[in-house]
TrEMBL record:
UniProtKB keywords: DNA-binding, Phosphoprotein, Transcription, Transcription regulation
PANTHER family, sorted: TRANSCRIPTIONAL REGULATORY PROTEIN NARL-RELATED (PTHR43214:SF24), TWO-COMPONENT RESPONSE REGULATOR (PTHR43214)
N-terminal signal peptide: none
Pfam families: GerE, Response_reg
PTM annotation (4-aspartylphosphate): residues: D55
Protein name: DNA-binding NarL/FixJ family response regulator
């Protein structure tokens, strides 16, 4: 299956570079380019790409606000130069499926798009340690109401919080990957969350 991608960045040269990188992958097709957040939201709603590669700092509407607008429409992978907590946490809370820095090498960017398109979350190694540290400062896990999730869904949520992919969860819990994906979707819907990364934050934060 071809992964359809929309690239949103206000710098034409940066967009061109990203398009060139993604164009080298046989299973990825860039179906649109946007130069600001408003255009990205409008185009994504119209053409329904599988993944939007979203910059943070853009005119008219920033990437975090645009990500929030696209919750439930498509998967958003933040790709930015700015490695600051405000952007990291803001993007993930807005529903981004992943967060990468623009110094990511070409192969890693292509693989990140594939992971996000499959429904897996992805965080740049450069910011993962800070996220773990932030969670460690809030050691009490937030448990969903007992009657909200089934026992199996609770197991899946715990695995998601550990950063496991659907394939890894399927192997650990001894079930089909397609079944795992269904469980993850149900968990997100029941908890009112936009992404598996938000599920990890939900599980790890104190209530």
């Amino acid at each position: 299956m071809t992964i359809r991608v929309l690239v949103a960045d206000d710098h034409a040269a940066v967009r061109a570079g990203i398009v060139l990188v993604l164009g080298g992958a046989a299973d990825i097709e860039v179906v649109g380019e946007a130069g600001d957040g408003e255009e990205a939201v409008a185009m994504a709603r119209e053409i329904r790409p599988d993944v939007v590669l979203m910059d943070v700092r853009m005119p008219k509407m920033d990437g975090i606000s645009a990500t929030r607008e696209l919750a439930g429409v498509t998967e958003v992978l933040i790709l930015t130069t700015f490695d600051v907590d405000e952007y990291v946490f803001g993007a993930l809370r807005a529903g981004a499926a992943g967060f990468l820095l623009k110094n990511t090498d070409a192969d890693s960017l292509v693989e990140a798009v594939r992971l996000v398109a499959r429904g897996d979350g992805l965080i740049s190694p450069a910011v993962t340690r800070r996220l773990i540290s932030a969670f460690a400062e809030q050691p009490v896990r937030r448990e969903p109401p007992k009657d909200l999730l089934t026992p199996r869904e609770r197991e899946v949520l715990a695995c998601v919080a550990r950063g496991l992919s659907n394939a890894e969860i399927a192997k650990e819990l001894d079930m089909a990957e397609a079944t795992t994906k269904t469980h993850v979707s149900r968990v997100l819907n029941k908890l009112g969350l936009r992404s598996r990364v938000q599920a990890a934050i939900y599980y790890s934060e104190g209530s």
